[in-house]
Amino acid sequence: MNREFEIIQRFLRSGKDAAHLNKSFQKIHDEQGIGHIMGSYIWFNARDREGLRGWFKDRTGIDPLVESSIPEDRISVACVGINEKLARKNVFAGQLKVAAPIGYEVQTINGPAITPRGTNLLVPSDHLILEEAEVIIVENGAVMRSINDLQFEQPFANPLFIYRGHESDARELKIALAAYPPACVIGFYDFDPAGMLMGLESKSDSLIFPKLSEENLEQSLLTKINQAEKFWTQAHQMSRLKTKAPETLLPFVEMMERLELAIMQEHIVAHQMMLSRYDL
């Protein structure tokens, strides 16, 4: 329906009498008898145009000649129309999934909150107080439920774990960090070429990796945690990774390439691997 709104709005505001016949116009013509089809075009007279406008307004409560767009959230849509599901954003848009380890709190404008073991909070991004937080961005959602099981070599003063998410969620997080800069941003990603590259390109202050050496990576452990096939699907990213990695991380990049390492965050948690923080 959002797509139909855009198409109808654009056409009505153009003042034209005809439009290319697409699926949206074909559907309206078949269901309402609005417009006259000639070849690959559909033509509208003044009565058709008013009917097109009225049909859409009846279905949505929104006038395509008055409203600039369908509202983003369901409550706003419900104020003007019958179908709240026309909202352009999902129901959790604008909220970040966050958690603080036991003994720490999530600071919000409405007061501090705790997250019991295995739980997360959904908080509107502009409700978080980030100024003094050490924000740890987590790539994989499953790890957010297990932050208390992570083993860190260096303790944090005021940690706040935030799930990175995908697409719109990742964009929301990026906007929030720019608008409300925290004390520092620490990236925690899969230990593979794609994960390390993502971390380096995320403008983090530090990255978290397993504390690895060839001595402590016994073959028996590698068999349990390493996914060499994933390394090879990402191997084409190694050259870019080498150019972006600072000298402090080059030993990890070289070891990753030499041992064909791709260790997911879930395995890091499951096998209680010691984690260390590396400044960029």
Instruction: Return the CATH architecture of the largest domain.
Output: 3-Layer(aba) Sandwich
Ends distance: 46 Å
Main sheet attributes: strand count, strand direction, barrel closure:
8 strands, mixed
SSE-based structural type: alpha/beta
How confident overall, as mean pLDDT? 88
Proportion of residues in β-strands = 15-25%
CATH topology of the largest domain, what is it called?
A: Dna Topoisomerase Vi A Subunit, Chain: A, domain 2
Please tell me what the overall shape is: elongated
Low-confidence stretches: none
Q: Enumerate the strands of the largest sheet in spatial order, edge to edge or round the barrel.
A: 7-4-10-8-11-12-13-9
Number of domains: 2
Number of strands: 13
- Tally of contiguous helical segments: 12
Rg value? 26 Å
Entry summary:
With 280 residues, the protein is α/β, with parallel strands linked by helices. It contains twelve helices and 13 strands.
Description:
38% of the residues lie in helices and 19% in strands. With 280 residues, the protein is α/β, with parallel strands linked by helices. The chain folds into two domains: 2-86, no CATH class; 95-279, 3-Layer(aba) Sandwich (Dna Topoisomerase Vi A Subunit, Chain: A, domain 2). The protein has an eight-stranded mixed beta sheet with strand order 7-4-10-8-11-12-13-9. It has a three-stranded antiparallel beta sheet with strand order 1-3-2, covered by helices on one side. Helix 7 (193-200) runs parallel beside helix 10 (238-244). The longest helix is centred in the first third of the chain and has 15 residues, at 46-60. It is elongated.
